Amino acid sequence: MHDIVLRKRTEAALVWLDFSSHSETETLLHAGQERQAREAVQRRGERLGSSHRFRIPYLRSLALLAEWQGHGAQTITHLREAAELAAEIGLPEEQWQIQTRLAKVYETEGEPAQARLAWAKASTIIQGLADGIKDETLRARFLAGPQIQPVLQRAQREASPLPQDRAEQQER
Questions:
Q1: Closest by CA position to 58, among listed 41, 71, 77
Q2: What does the alpha-carbon distance between residue 111 and residue 25 come to, in Å, rounded to a whole number?
Q3: Model confidence over 111-131: pLDDT tens digits?
Q4: What is the pTM of this model?
């Protein structure tokens, strides 16, 4: 909540805070502070300027607010725009996270084909990042990371789903 106080005291974009503003929005929403979350996002939007880089976390925050209210289509629109901007300016670290969120929203909205595509995109982006790590130990640690591993596992499951009857047998 300290971040909110700092933001209220300045009109300028605070780089170290504004890049993770979607996390702040999520925290506020889960704390039952929806009004405060909306106000913070609105303030960020008002001082956004022309920076595509600042627009990404802003769009992610808008997506969180839309999702919180159950507006799946609007959530998807915001996330897609954020993903496009991240790709356009070359931010793969943002891209895979946005694609992962998109996949989850598509699943909630009953769009499994779109969800599979988003999982695959997230996995491809992560693999591209891993390919850039030349040290094998560091690459292995990256791929086994707590944020990365579940995405890769999910993408792999989505890419080669078991036939329904086999899946049910394995659950027993």
A1: 41
A2: 26
A3: 999 999 999 999 999 999 999
A4: 0.77
